[in-house]
Q: What sequence folds into this?
């Protein structure tokens, strides 16, 4: 890969990041604004000995990558809104059967077909709760082309480390934006592979984990001859309806993530130390927020930005700290208030929580956010 | 159980969950006999199934086994086979699993001619959920959701497979268990998508509602209605009306998907 900076599209960065991370199996179904990821991988994967498969729909794509992952491959699918809805049942299967995989969702305006080419961030809650039943989930959300690459690599690392589906929650802005970047060279970023069993077949329990709660994963075809199911199962992988085993499994699925929140959750904060107002934003919106905050600072307002890169699990501790310090919070997102709900929950009345919400197919502009920032200051008690 | 096939079962998982008199066990038996005759490496063979009574079969078999979501067995299996073509992959699916919720995956797997040996357990009903009609329930038959008789027409599954591009298509019944073993062997040997439809008796969900009698009566019905192509040829159109052919129905050659992809990799590599 070139060490020279070049113009790269967000979706291209995602595709290249996936290859960098070792992804060698992609299955998908085209949908705007994610299609470039498939097109690029259709060309690139066979060049590196990888497999590209265009399936008959998104349900099949999700199923195919799970099958691929079970043979040991790092796998991925990419989609947008309607396709993300279709993938949900099998995403739940991957949670339950603990199959590493990455699902890129380049969000577009919904509900339904909505506007195919319009930016939106309306899938935040679907990423969290889209599949039925209790389950933890990891979702990452990049806000630049460079970050699309880096977080794609991270998405694979987390998927492999914790044996989970990881959702790369992009949006149309980041997916279609082009920026001049130098893509990382081999070795620049860590690349994690799943842990495989070293024991004999007789001693292999596919769902028995040590204290880190993630069991080693055998490949199909390597002699372990084990069973995989979406039914609740015991350590051996076979179905059970015993409440105490169901309890054990569901708790472990949550603990394997909750015990590692420090490793999983990343975010960036800018100028939050002295701020009396912190804007919380992610993805495409975070870019407009950065600009708005700069302008607000020039006007003398002490405003900072908190930008989660890990959106699920929600960065509860960090936001809780902001709330406890009495800073005001302003959530800016391109939906009717999804992350806002989480911020309100964590703030729990300890600080003011404002919002700047837009869901009309247009990118929220810095001016709109700046106006909102001014409003918060104007209405502040004592003004 | 015959000692030569015991090694293919997870004996500790038996007895199975199927009703007394269910035909599914016969299919399983024919399958492992075929695998035994083919001398397949147990470590290099994967069994993929969907959801339903039929699909529970995977749990009893001592291979890498993948019990998936309803209707999606072929899509999961496509992923396994495409990622690791050297594995032998068998797909076990019910008539509802394969032709209703999974119908789209079925025609596309056939169209790709991907090397999967697919066995459809056709009991003409949604067995697991208690006997609702499926796309394979004959017209006018009773089901819990067709209490006045089924108004819909069933698929002709083998015709559908042929039209979609499957390169090996066969049909038989649980009565013809020996033939089933031979058909699975032949289907496996076909380098492409193979479909074997097995008409199996479900005394609980289909038989009872349609007054088919005992499991033995249902087997006799299969014997009397499933006949060879040669016998079928000699019947009058009236005599043919309630009969169906058992045996190989279609065999052809076409490029197999994973092989074609491998060629592409070699060309680019
Ligand atoms: C998405 C989804 N829809 C519905 C069901 C409920 N369901 C489970 S098995 C089944 C029917 C199975 O029928 P068939 O495939 O013919 O298998 P059989 O039980 O007859 O062997 C249905 C409808 C499900 N598990 N998942
Ligand atoms: S309901 Fe029918 S198919 Fe299911 S186990 Fe019972 S007899 Fe067999
Ligand atoms: Mg059925």
A:
């Amino acid at each position: 890969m070139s060490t020279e900076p070049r113009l790269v599209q967000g979706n291209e960065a995602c595709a290249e990041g996936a290859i960098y991370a070792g992804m060698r199996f992609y299955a998908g179904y085209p949908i705007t604004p994610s299609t470039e990821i498939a097109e690029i991988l259709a060309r690139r994967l066979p060049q590196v000995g990888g497999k590209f498969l265009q399936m008959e729909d998104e349900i099949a794509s999700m199923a195919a990558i799970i099958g691929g992952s079970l043979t040991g491959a790092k796998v991925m699918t990419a989609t947008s809104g309607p396709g993300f809805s279709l993938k949900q049942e099998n995403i739940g299967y991957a949670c339950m059967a603990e199959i590493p995989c990455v699902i890129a969702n380049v969000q577009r305006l919904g509900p339904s077909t909505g506007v195919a080419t319009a930016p939106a961030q309306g899938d935040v809650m679907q990423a969290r709760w889209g599949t039925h039943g209790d389950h933890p989930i990891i979702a990452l959300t990049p806000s630049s082309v460079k970050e699309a690459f880096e977080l794609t690599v991270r998405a694979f690392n987390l998927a492999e480390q914790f044996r989970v589906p990881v959702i790369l929650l992009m949006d149309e802005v980041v997916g279609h934006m082009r920026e001049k970047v130098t893509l990382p060279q081999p070795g620049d970023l860590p690349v994690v592979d799943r842990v495989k069993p070293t024991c004999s077949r007789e001693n292999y329990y596919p769902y028995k984990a040590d204290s880190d709660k993630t069991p080693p994963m055998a490949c199909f075809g390597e002699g372990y001859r084990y069973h995989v199911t979406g039914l609740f199962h015991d350590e051996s992988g076979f179905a059970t309806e015993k409440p105490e085993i169901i309890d054990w499994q569901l708790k472990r699925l949550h603990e394997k993530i909750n015990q590692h929140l420090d490793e999983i959750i990343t975010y960036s904060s800018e100028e939050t130390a002295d701020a009396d107002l912190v804007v919380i934003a992610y993805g495409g919106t975070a870019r407009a927020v950065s600009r708005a905050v700069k302008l607000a600072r020039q006007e003398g307002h002490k405003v900072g930005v908190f930008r989660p890169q890990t959106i699920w699990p929600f960065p509860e501790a960090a936001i809780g700290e902001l709330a406890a310090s009495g800073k005001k919070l302003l959530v800016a997102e391109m939906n009717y208030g999804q992350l806002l709900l989480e911020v309100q929950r964590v703030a729990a009345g300890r600080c003011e929580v404002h919002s700047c919400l837009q869901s009309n197919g247009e990118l929220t502009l810095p001016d709109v956010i700046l106006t909102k920032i001014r409003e918060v200051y104007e209405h502040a008690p004592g003004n | 159980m015959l000692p030569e096939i015991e090694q293919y079962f997870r004996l500790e998982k038996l007895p199975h969950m199927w009703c007394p008199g269910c035909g599914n066990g016969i299919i399983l038996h024919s399958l492992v006999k075929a695998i035994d005759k083919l001398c397949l490496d147990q470590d290099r063979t994967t069994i993929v199934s969907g959801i339903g009574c039929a699909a529970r079969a995977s749990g009893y078999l001592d291979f890498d086994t993948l019990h998936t979501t309803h209707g999606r067995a072929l899509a999961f299996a496509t992923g396994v086979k495409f990622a690791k073509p050297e594995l032998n992959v068998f797909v076990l699916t019910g008539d509802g699993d394969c032709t209703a919720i999974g119908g789209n995956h079925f025609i596309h797997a056939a169209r790709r001619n991907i090397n999967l040996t697919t066995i459809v357990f056709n009991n003409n009903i949604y067995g697991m959920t208690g006997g609702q009609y499926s796309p394979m329930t004959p017209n006018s038959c009773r089901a819990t959701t067709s209490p006045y008789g089924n108004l819909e027409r069933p698929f002709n599954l083998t015709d559908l497979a042929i039209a979609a591009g499957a390169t090996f298509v066969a049909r038989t019944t649980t009565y013809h268990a020996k033939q089933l073993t031979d058909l699975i062997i032949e289907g496996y040997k076909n380098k492409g998508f193979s479909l074997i439809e097995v008409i199996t008796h479900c005394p609980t969900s289909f038989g009872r509602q349609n007054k088919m009698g005992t499991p033995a009566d249902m087997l006799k019905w299969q014997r009397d209605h499933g006949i060879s192509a040669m016998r079928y040829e000699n019947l009058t159109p009236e005599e043919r009306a309630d009969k169906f052919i058992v045996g190989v129905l279609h065999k052809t050659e076409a490029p197999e998907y994973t092989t074609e992809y491998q060629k592409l990799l070699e060309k680019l590599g």
Chain A is about 40% helix and 20% strand. Chain A has a mean pLDDT of 97. The two ends of chain A are 55 Å apart (CA to CA). Residues 145-162 of chain A form the longest helix (18 residues).
